[in-house]
């Protein structure tokens, strides 16, 4: 993972400077995390020619992997700058049992995928959520949502992650059986970028290089960070550095 982050850092080519003042406070993004499955099994993932065995003997080991994900994402964010200015803080990490998980049954292509729009509707009625800036919801299964629906045609698409449109502070990540997978860091960073107010990078810029804020459906061999992403974090720092 460290090598992966180092390679990304070499691709950035953009590093906003922060004035070197001693003991300046960092801005904290408080994250509340719910995982919606019991990670106590062995999963064999076929990925091209490689077989990856993901083993979690208990939920404590899984939670440790999630904490590492947040730490790695924090490291990646702060690599944009000359010093650490953003802290990602887990304020809770809890199991959320959804007894009747809303799943797509039709069309057949999406059968068994989580209907994330319906899950977000469940959270919309919650009045006593623990205090956090972002609520992260993790799913074991693939995740999809309805893009558009008319009398004659319904368009559905799979998602790696999605920022909640209701309230703007809930993020869901799909197929999260392995929090140590490198792309989980990039997916989380992508969704936090949306939380910071960023849109997707124009498709033309994503044809050869996959920027973090590209639509995840576009797959290229290189990954780079959009210039507006570090700028958004710097803006967040300037607005919140004295609120911790």
From TrEMBL:
Picking any one GO molecular function of the record gives:
metallopeptidase activity
Q: Where are the transmembrane segments?
A: none
Coiled coil segments of this chain: none
Q: Where is the signal peptide?
A: 1-20
> Gene3D superfamilies per the record?
Collagenase (Catalytic Domain)
Top-level taxon of origin: Bacteria
Keyword annotations: Signal
InterPro entries with a match to the protein in the record:
MetalloPept_cat_dom_sf
SUPFAM superfamilies cross-referenced by the UniProt entry? Metalloproteases ('zincins'), catalytic domain (SSF55486)
Q: Does the keyword Amino-acid biosynthesis apply?
A: no
**Is Flavoprotein among this UniProt entry's keywords?**
no
Query: What protein name is recorded for this chain?
Result: Peptidase M10 metallopeptidase domain-containing protein
What organism is listed for this UniProt entry? Candidatus Giovannonibacteria bacterium RIFCSPLOWO2_01_FULL_45_34
| High-level lineage | Bacteria, Candidatus Giovannoniibacteriota
């Amino acid at each position: 993972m460290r090598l992966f982050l180092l390679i990304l850092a070499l691709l950035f080519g953009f590093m906003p400077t922060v004035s070197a003042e001693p003991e300046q406070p960092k801005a904290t993004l408080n994250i509340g995390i719910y995982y919606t499955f019991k990670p106590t099994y062995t999963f064999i993932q076929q990925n091209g020619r490689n077989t990856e065995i993901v083993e979690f003997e208990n939920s404590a080991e899984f939670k440790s992997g999630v904490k590492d994900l947040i730490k790695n994402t924090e490291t990646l964010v702060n690599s944009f700058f000359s010093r650490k200015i953003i802290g990602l803080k887990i304020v809770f990490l809890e199991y959320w049992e959804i007894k009747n998980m809303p799943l797509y049954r039709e069309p057949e292509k999406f059968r068994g995928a989580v209907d994330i729009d319906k899950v977000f509707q469940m959270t919309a009625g919650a009045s006593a959520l623990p205090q956090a800036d972002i609520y992260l919801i993790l799913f074991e299964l693939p995740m999809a949502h309805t893009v558009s629906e008319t009398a004659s045609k319904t368009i559905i698409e799979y998602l790696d992650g999605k920022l909640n449109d209701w309230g703007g502070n809930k993020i869901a990540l799909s197929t999260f059986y392995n929090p140590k997978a490198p792309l989980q860091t990039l997916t989380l960073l992508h969704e936090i970028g949306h939380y910071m107010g960023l849109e997707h990078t124009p498709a033309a810029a994503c044809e050869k290089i996959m920027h973090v804020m590209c639509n995840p459906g576009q797959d290229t061999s290189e990954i780079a960070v959009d210039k507006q992403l570090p700028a958004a974090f710097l803006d967040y720092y300037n607005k919140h550095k004295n609120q911790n």
